[in-house]
Design brief:
The chain is an all-alpha fold. The chain has 21 helices and no strands.
């Protein structure tokens, strides 16, 4: 495949000058690959610098662990999960295609549809969740201001938020990158102001007096943070690095991706541990309306800028999700333009938000159950793809990613089998911690008894070991069984 020298590439391509990106899942032309590793900082940072991150401290403390333990799992869980995203982002530079297209190298052109379905579902779940958070926060803040906050407010908020998310995601990569660089400063300033205004509520004696929890509780909190942050984004990690220059350093891509994704949530969760550890009365409200509850301790005059920043941060994250879920939809064989795919997913997001906000009695518990369930196969897939990135010595054969008769084949049953085994084992080691709200998910945890871990009622059941086990099985399995497959692929004549 011929390559254009990065130095000779124009600073702005024709596509970049357009408002709406026309690229779908096809290979990005060399002339358009002008991004540098540090450009990855902006979309990841903007999508994760939300005060919503502070609310995670409530869930972490819910495992019954001490402040010191919570600090440890926060730093380790958030950084490690975004480091995994950074590793997979290397594939984007090597193959100029979206994440789920690149995974065809391991799974086969059509075999990729197996992880693709799970990827689409988890992306849709996340972006809908973020939209719901934005609507609920708007209603709560409006109530505090005395401006209503009832059904009309929720309807208008839903319409505006959905329009922002869908509009930006339909516009595509270049518009989103510019938008994220602006939102970073706005949301960062508002979040910093929130911390300064609530700092006097911290009671270090109360925070540090929390008793330490057992090992299984620490692991449970770690898994929660990993799935809630980096592993929640990992299936789209290469979507933004596919515009990187060919000569971009893989190490730099990992660094900026990890730094952009992990910096804000690490600091925010750490601050949340201090704040919520000092104000335990916040925990109950956070369960159903995290951002709105955090707003209740602010002075009235700051509520409007706080709301705008919080909503824009959530919109920022949802935009990344919608954009990438549209690409995943295309990778499953839906033959429509990329903007149309984003519009379809945006419509589903809007309908899901309307149903939850206006009709559902509870959504957080079913969502968390849904997240852990999908997190198991996605973790297995992530392990396989990280191992695939580590095994490959050459760039991807970009044409073969779209040809079932090419070097990557139609179905790679080894990868599909590893993912299947990892998912079956993983689901057997997690439980539905929201049995009443999501009774449809009570089938999990079937290995906890046979393996001597105390069954579904034992303390290890709450650790959700299945996510880590699935990740490990995927990584080690493909590292061992996929090595010869990758070598054979790379020895074939370049097309």
């Amino acid at each position: 495949m011929s390559q254009t020298s990065p130095a000779a590439a124009p600073r702005l391509s024709e596509t970049e000058r357009r408002l709406v990106e026309t690229n779908g899942i096809e290979i990005i032309a060399e002339a358009e690959r002008t991004a540098s590793p540090h450009d990855l900082f902006w979309p990841w940072f903007a999508a994760n610098i939300s005060v919503f991150g502070i609310s995670y401290a409530s869930y972490v403390f819910g495992f019954g662990i001490s402040f010191a333990q919570a600090v440890l799992v926060t730093v380790l869980g958030v950084v490690a999960s975004f480091l995994a995203c950074g590793i997979i982002a290397i594939a984007g530079k090597r193959g100029s295609a979206p994440t789920m297209v690149l995974s065809r190298a391991a799974f086969g052109v059509n075999g990729q549809k197996v992880p693709g379905v799970f990827s689409w579902l988890i992306s849709m779940g996340w972006e809908t969740f973020l939209a719901i958070m934005a609507v609920l926060a708007t209603a709560t803040v409006f109530t505090q201001l005395g401006w209503g906050g009832g059904t009309l407010t929720s309807v208008l908020a839903c319409a505006v938020i959905a329009a922002l998310i869908v509009g930006a995601s339909v516009a595509g990569y270049h518009t989103i990158m510019r938008m994220q660089s602006v939102l970073t400063w706005l949301t960062g300033a508002a979040t910093t102001a929130y911390i300064l205004m609530t700092w006097d509520r911290i009671d270090l004696a109360a925070v540090t007096s929390r008793e330490a929890g057992p090992t299984e509780a620490v692991i449970g909190a770690l898994v929660l943070l990993m799935t809630g942050f980096g592993l929640g984004w990992i299936n789209i990690a290469a979507d933004w690095s596919r515009y990187q220059r060919r000569d971009a350093s893989g190490g730099a891509i990992v660094l900026w991706n990890t730094l952009g994704g992990a910096l804000a949530p690490t600091l925010l969760v750490l601050y949340g541990l201090l704040l919520i550890g000092s104000q335990p009365e916040l925990e109950e409200g956070i369960v159903n309306d995290p951002i709105g509850t955090l707003a209740t301790i602010l002075p009235i005059w700051f509520l409007v800028p706080f709301l705008l920043a919080a909503v824009l941060a959530l919109v920022s994250g949802a935009v990344l999700g919608i954009y990438s879920s549209g690409l995943t939809l295309l990778s499953l064989g839906i033959d429509i333009p990329r903007p149309a795919a984003a519009l379809i997913d945006g419509t589903i997001l809007t309908l899901g938000t309307i149903w939850v906000v206006f009709f559902a009695q509870s959504f957080l518990a079913p969502f968390q159950s849904f997240l852990i369930t999908l997190g198991v196969p996605i973790a297995a897939w992530a392990g396989i793809l990280m191992a695939d990135v580590a095994l490959r010595r050459r760039d991807y054969d970009e044409q073969a990613l779209f040809d079932p008769r090419g070097r990557y084949g139609d179905w790679n049953w080894t990868a599909v089998g590893i993912m299947g085994v990892a998912a079956v084992v993983g689901w057997g080691l997690v439980i539905n911690t929201f049995a009443e709200a999501a009774a449809w998910n009570n089938w999990q945890g079937y290995l906890l008894g046979p393996l001597g871990l105390g069954g579904k009622e034992g303390t290890w059941a709450w650790a959700n070991l299945g996510v880590l086990v699935a990740l490990a099985i995927g990584f080690v399995g493909w590292l061992v069984l996929g090595r010869r497959i990758v070598r054979r692929q790379e020895l074939e004549e370049q097309v």
